């Protein structure tokens, strides 16, 4: 008889039960969602028919599939997450689990072990589901298992905040000097946290108002540099920093030592200080260090009105991503944005114009 989706007494998990081509099946569907269980049932039946017709399909353990997946260039974060998952499999005696045995129950257990109890859905997706599904898709393409089907994790929509130039000024004014320079640079260039922390004086040309960001977020096989033009505010912030201006990390701690080499640790430290300063500046919205990049994108679009230019200047892979980061600013904000980026020059020009006007009146 064909496979049926059933529910065992005392459990919410759905099961696949039946006999196909003489093979008796009684196994978990790996989900409590009837629609996903039905997809799993159809895929399992097709797999049994295919094996009976063409012979048993070669299988691989998840570890072997992961090793094959990692032969191609992958990000350090992806490698770290997969290694954590593989270590957990070994600790729980599942190191020989086959790709076709990696189901919903196993991933639920991995999420419980590898993430905090109150971890957000996005964290579970990033740390467990996404890297594991990538390996299983890699395996499915090579015929080692069926295409993976898991319960979708719904993510709550969080409003993306951004700051006005006036709010940015308050944050910079209340920040310690070593952090104020970093925040000014980020507000002027839209640099990511990793790009800022890895910036070296060897890649900064103050004379030509340019800097080269090396740790640009991109696909490992498409690594690229990002050249940014430095407005006067950024040049002034960099010029007063201690250091040789020739080589070495640009942004450092208050004691002159480099930040922690792991950007997750150093980034979290800087983020906590940024949030503390934002509260002191009477910014009551929930903000993080990443809000600076949203702010810069919004300012950039307000000044230039060109989404394609924003995509290129911000090193996003698509116009959709650039659009997600930019928010519509009021029409009258453009002079405030320019005043922030060109502080010093605009003040000097204003002073000169006032002096000229005063002289003409005489």
Q: Which keywords apply here?
A:
three-stranded antiparallel sheet, hpI Integrase, Chain A, DNA polymerase, domain 1, 51% helix, mainly alpha, 362 residues
What does this structure look like?
About 2% of the residues have low confidence. This protein folds into three domains: 57 residues; 100 residues, DNA polymerase, domain 1 (Orthogonal Bundle); 188 residues, Orthogonal Bundle (hpI Integrase, Chain A), CATH 1.10.443.10. It has 362 residues and is mainly alpha-helical. The strands form two sheets. The chain has a three-stranded antiparallel sheet, covered by helices on one side. Pfam families: Phage_integrase. One of its GO terms (molecular function) is DNA binding. InterPro entries: DNA_brk_join_enz, Integrase-like_cat_sf, Integrase_catalytic, Tyrosine_recombinase_XerCD.
Q: Give the count of helical stretches.
A: 15
| Spatial strand arrangement across the major sheet | 1-2-3
How many strand units?
6
Rg value: 27 Å
- What is the level-2 CATH architecture name of the largest domain? Orthogonal Bundle
The shape, in one word, is: elongated
Strand content: 5-15%
Integer average pLDDT: 85
Q: Topology as H/E string? A: EEEHHHHHHHHEEEHHHHHHH
Q: CATH superfamily of the largest domain, called what?
A: Intergrase catalytic core
Helix fraction bin: 40-55%
Distance between the termini: 104 Å
Structural class: mainly alpha
CATH-defined fold name of the largest domain: hpI Integrase, Chain A
